[in-house]
Amino acid sequence: LAEARASPDPSVQEARLTRLLGLRPGHREAEDLLATARRFEPLRDEVEDARRLSAEYRELRDKRRLTDEWARRAEATAAVLELRTIPNLEALPETYPGRGLVGEARDLASRLRGFRIVTLRKLPDDVEVLLAKGTGASREIDWAGAGIHRRTPLAAQDIVLEPGSYVLLLRGSGRTLHLPFRIEHRTTDRTEIECPIDPKAIPEGMVYVQGVEGMEYGDPRFADAPQRVDLKPFFLDEHEVTNEQYALYVNDLDPPLRRRAVPRRLLPGGGEQTAPLWNELPDATWTFPEGAARLPVTGISLLDAEAYAAWAGKRLPSPAEWERAARGADRRDYTFGMELDPSASNAHTGTIAEAGGFPRDRSPFGALDMAGNVAELTSESAGAMATIKGGSFDLPRYRALAVASGRVRADLPSRDVGFRCAKDVE
Predict the structure, then answer these.
(1) CA distances for 178 relative to 65, 198, 199, 286, 325, angstroms
(2) Of the candidates 73, 47, 77, which has an alpha carbon nearest to the alpha carbon of residue 60?
(3) Rounded-to-integer distance, Cα 308 and Cα 421, Å
(4) CA torsion sign, 373 to 374 to 375 to 378?
(5) Fewest beta carbons less than 10 Å away: which of 95, 139, 163, 378?
(6) Do 178 and 129 contact (CB within 8 A), yes or no?
(7) With contact defined as beta carbons under 8 Å apart, do 363 and 335 qualify?
């Protein structure tokens, strides 16, 4: 009787209790416990079936054999767990050992119910297809672990995924198209992802950002009440404009205009007097300090940034576009996920870093350094003030939040403010 009480295995219980009842016919506790074991055994088998189906997922995915039929089995098994197994397990006596399966059954039902078929459509030919997944509650994208290394055309364009944040990567001709998406529990049975552009059409040094309708933009902690905005797709510089890139623009100007365009610093004393940060050479060209080629350019005004963008055939992004590019499809708090990690970006370190020096500070659309390094000018200004987005090496870490924004004098240089450019998709 003690062995039967303690065992979670109904076959062990039944053997012990059957023997006990052969010795003591009519033993009330043994009869009740045997009846409970016989009720529990099929429920245990249903949980075991769900375990096996869940375990099949990784093996089948790795072999690229996940099908609609498998997804239907997962959905049907989840329904059995929710409608029959779990209620009957909960009806067992509180002290019955098998009642401990309730929690596992709920987890299995949630996992199996959440699997969704994702169909890839209109993929261009001769591109490599990879899939990166956000990990855990932080949703940080595991770029290094991107799987499904295949090249189009694909034999099958259906994949089955569990709930979570993902980025579909399409690589071709030295360009990568990032298509972030999120699968929630109990959404539609099938998610379709249609390739909006051939990666070969993405300008060098830029990333493609998908458009969106009704995006909530802004945060009451940093601005007025959030707004709803519609955004068209656009291209965005992968990283902030560097000194090396900005020097090409400066030295392409007529010599009299160069002095006004070079980065500047405010002179001590609290006034508005400035002095050049760069050095003028005998041939009337300007050069940045040694070792600063890959550093983001700073010490420029909003007018300077707009002039550079026009020279490059681009423009500045709006604050809403900037925020869309940083947050991706799952509206994460930081480019790298939902949790602040001081090591993930160059935020509040006191020292500027080379562009791309913090690879974890990569947004789901592929843009680098949006949570740190230098804050960035946008196309929005109000009077004498310009709107900036993003964290910097000099700002408090909370400014690494993608919804954060601030204001600087549009006509004056700032030591920790730079910019990146955007471009319309034609």
Answers:
(1) 25, 11, 9, 37, 11
(2) 73
(3) 9
(4) negative
(5) 95
(6) no
(7) yes
CB atoms within 10 A of CB 303: 14
What's the mean pLDDT in 272-292? Answer: 96
Other residues' Cβ atoms within 10 Å of the Cβ of residue 50: 23
Q: Are strands 375-382 and 417-418 parallel, antiparallel or unpaired?
A: parallel
Could you read off the pLDDT of 120-156 as tens digits, one per residue? Answer: 888 999 999 999 999 888 999 999 988 766 888 876 6
Helix axes 302-311, 243-250, angle to 10 degrees: 80
CB-based contacts of 130, cutoff 8 Å, min separation 6? 146, 147, 148, 149, 168, 169, 171
User: What value does the mean pLDDT take over residues 260-277?
Assistant: 92
Helices (H), ranges, 240-298: 243-250, 255-261
Categorize the per-residue pLDDT at 220 as very low, low, confident or very high, splitting at 50, 70 and 90: low
- Token couple for 250: 């400066």
Model confidence at 119, in pLDDT bands (50, 70, 90)? confident
pLDDT of residue 271: 83
Tokens at residue 426, please? 């034609």
For residues 333 and 402, what is the distance between their CA atoms, to the nearest angstrom?
6
Question: Per-residue DSSP letters for 203-255?
Answer: PTTEEEE--EEEEEE--TTTSSS-EEEEE--EEEESSPPBHHHHHHHHTTS-H
User: Is 256 exposed, middle or buried, given 0-12, 13-18 or 19+ CB atoms closer than 10 A?
Assistant: exposed
Instruction: Give the 3-state secondary structure of residue 386.
Output: strand
